[in-house]
Write a structure and sequence with these properties.
Strand content: over 45%
Shape: globular
Largest sheet: 7 strands, mixed
């Protein structure tokens, strides 16, 4: 099992920056694909960015050029650097790890961290 704990959320003004952290545990951390998702009130949970075990990244169009996902497998950490934040970026941000065993996909989620952006 992979346990994930997010931190780094908070309140900023539009144009500001935040860095979210995700601390992981478990022996399989380095082999997991990981990602950040977000969910605003009354909306579905959306993919923000993903990173493979060897560092390949992918971003949702609405954060390209503003957000950067990274990880350090030795430290069992993942980060999301968020720059030029907009009010529409306000949401609860979740850390995700996923892996496949015997053809079955598994997911682990953190508890979420709140990001508030004021205009």
């Amino acid at each position: 099992q992979v346990l994930l704990v997010e931190s780094g959320g908070g309140s900023v003004q539009a144009g500001g920056s935040l860095r979210l952290s995700c601390a992981g545990s478990g022996s399989r951390f380095s082999s997991n694909a990981m990602g950040w998702y977000r969910q605003a009130p009354g909306k579905q949970r959306d993919l923000v960015a993903t990173i493979t075990s060897d560092g390949g990244t992918n971003y949702a169009d609405f954060v390209k050029g503003r957000f950067t996902i990274s990880r350090d497998n030795a430290k069992k950490m993942m980060w999301l650097q968020m720059n030029n934040l907009k009010p529409e970026d306000a949401a609860v941000y979740y850390c995700n790890a996923n892996w496949v065993v015997a053809g079955n996909k598994f997911n682990s989620w953190g508890q979420g961290t709140q990001v508030t952006v004021s205009s």
